[in-house]
Amino acid sequence: MRVLIVGGAGYIGSHVCKALAARGDEPVVFDNLSRGHDHAVQWGPLVRGDIRNAEELDAAFEAHQPAAVMHFAANIEVGEGQKEPLAFWDNNVAGVVSLLQAMKRAGCSSLVFSSTCATYGTPQSLPLTEDEPQTPINVYGRTKLAVEQLLADVSSAEDLRYAALRYFNASGASPDGEIGEEHDPETHLIPNALKAAAGLGGPMKLFGTDYDTADGTCERDFIHVMDLAAAHLAALDRLLSGAGSFQCNVGTGTGYSVKAVLDTVERVTGLPVPHDIHGRREGDPPRLYADVTRSRQLLDFQPQYSDLETIIRDAWNFHRIAWGVEAVKTG
Ligand code: UDP
User: Fold this and answer.
1) Which of 137, 284, 308 to mutate to test the pocket of ligand 1 (most atoms within 8 A of CB)?
2) How far is 217 from 193, CA to CA, in rounded Å?
C-alpha cells in the first residue's frame, strides 16, 4: 500500500516511513524541507513541495496515487508560535485546508493527523482522557485544535475519515541510530540534557523547581518515537478497515519528572548533566500524562520501547553519532 507522508522528512514522519517500509508498505514523502532533512528520507521517494501549493499537491497525488495520507508538516515550537502566530496558522491550519482540498480532488479519503496533548491546555484532572475539555494555552495548541475542529466539520459533510492522534512527549530515536530528533533550535528536554552531558553548548536550563509535584519539577509522559510510529500504523489500519473517525491519546500513562530525566541521562551516559535552575517556562502545565484506555481499545496499543531508560539510551545512541561524541560510558 502506498501512503503519502506529508512532512515525512521530520522526526516523527521519518520513523513512520521506516516502520511502513519494514512491513512492506510504500511511503512517499511530501516535504518542503523547511525543517525536515533529506537524509531522513530513506524508505521511498521524496517529493519536494509545500502543502499550501495546490499544484504541487495535485502532482504528487497524480504521480503516486496514495491510498491514504499522514500529516506531520507542522510548526511545533511553542515559543516560536507565540512570536509568529500568522506563520503557525498559515502552515498548520491553512496548510491542512489545502491538503484536504487536494485529497478531495484526488478522491483520497483517509487521513492520520498529528495532534497533541497541547490541545488540552492545563488539565483539570489526571490522567488526561480524550473527553477532557480542550482549552489550549498557546498558539501551537490552538492551531492543532482548530485542525481537529476542521476535520470534524469536513468529515461530517464529505467523504473523509480521519484519526487525530494526540501525542504526549515524543522522544527517543531509532534503536539502530539511523534517524532521530534533529530540531534547530532544539527546545526539548531530553536532547538538551544529552547535549549538556556531552559538554556541548554549556549547562542546560532547568525551568522551574517549585511546582506542586513530588520533586518540584514538571512531570511529562514520554513516548518513544518507535511506539508512536506503531500507533500511526495501527490508526491507519483501523481507518482503512472501514472504521469511523476517531481522536485518541498516544502516551504511556506514566509521568516522569524533569529531575528523573536528568538522573536517567546521567546513569545512561555515565556523564554529569550540568544545569542551571531558572524560573518556570511560560505555559508549562505542572503534570501531563495520558489516560491510555482508548488507545488500548481502538489501536490495541501497548508501548514496547517507552521506559525512560530505553528512550534515553536510544536518543543518546543517535545523538552521540550525530554530534561525534567519542567517549561513552554506559551504566
Ligand atoms: N525543560 C527544561 N529545560 C529544557 C527543555 C525543557 O527544564 O531545556 C522542561 C520544560 O520546562 C518542561 C519539560 O522539560 O517542564 C518538558 O519540556 P519539553 O519542551 O521537552 O516538552 P513539552 O512538554 O513542552 O512538550
Assistant:
1) 284
2) 15
The predicted model scores a pTM of 0.96
pLDDT in tens, 89-135: 999 999 999 999 999 999 999 999 999 999 999 999 999 999 999 99
Instruction: Give CA–CA dist 139/125, Å, rounded.
Output: 22
Asked if residue 57 lies in contact with residue 51, where contact means CB atoms within 8 angstroms, the answer is: yes
| 2-171+223-250: CATH topology | Rossmann fold (3.40.50)
Q: Residues with Cβ < 8 Å from 250, sequence gap 6 or more?
A: 165, 166, 167, 168, 223, 227, 228, 231, 290, 295, 301
Beta carbon of 116 within 6 Å of any ligand 1 atom: no
Count Cβ neighbours within 10 Å for each residue of 155-192 and write b for 16 or more, e otherwise. beeeebbbbbbbbbbbbbbbeeeebbbbeeebebbbbb
- Asked if 117 contacts 166 with a C-beta cutoff of 8 angstroms, the reply is yes
Domain ranges of the chain: 2-171+223-250
Please answer whether residues 139 and 81 qualify as being in contact, where contact means their C-beta atoms are separated by less than 8 angstroms: yes
**Cell of residue 24, nine digits:** 512492506
